[in-house]
Amino acid sequence: MVSLIKLASFFLAATGWMMTGVGSAFAQGVERREAHAHVHGAAEMSFVIDRDRLLVELAAPMGDMVGFESAPKNAADRMKIDQATRLLNDAARVVAPGTAAGCRVTETSVRMPFGGAARSADHHDHDPKGSHVDVEASYVFACRSIGALDRVEVTVFRTFPELETIEAVFLGPRTQVARKLKSSSPVFRLK
Ligand SMILES: [Zn+2]
Description:
It is built from 6 helices and 9 strands. The chain is of the alpha+beta class and 191 residues long. The protein has one domain. A 6-stranded mixed sheet has the order 4-5-2-1-7-8. The chain has a 3-stranded antiparallel sheet with strand order 3-6-9, with no helix packed on it. Helix 1 runs antiparallel to helix 3.
């Protein structure tokens, strides 16, 4: 549970997220995940309410989304990376906020190791200890009735069937909920 506690404290302290947006949360999130080894099949997600917005972050083993955790060796590998990136850029394939809240996605960021724009600058490219490599994705939803947000369905289980469990944390203005989601129970109830 160490990682979950870190996750929660990270977001509670994350004025950086609120002030400077998804990019800086990424940078901090990457540091957070590097502090411990990941387990295949297991991901982490956070849901944070910021006024009328729902901020979602996902960190998951690259191996569960792409099939490997190294630089692509050929065109087929590159296609797998591109495919996973495309899927993650479609917010609906990762998370579906309950319809009562009237949320629509306004921002999507995907940090895929060894792929796309992040390639040259991404320190994940170097894997000297043979440690695991994570994929990070962030989403911002603007919600018409954020107070009516009572559930979030984690659709990423269907998109990436290798994922089996997600340690999820929800930080709202009055409630904090931590829960372990499974592919067989992918709905995070917030109320
Ligand atoms: Zn791994």
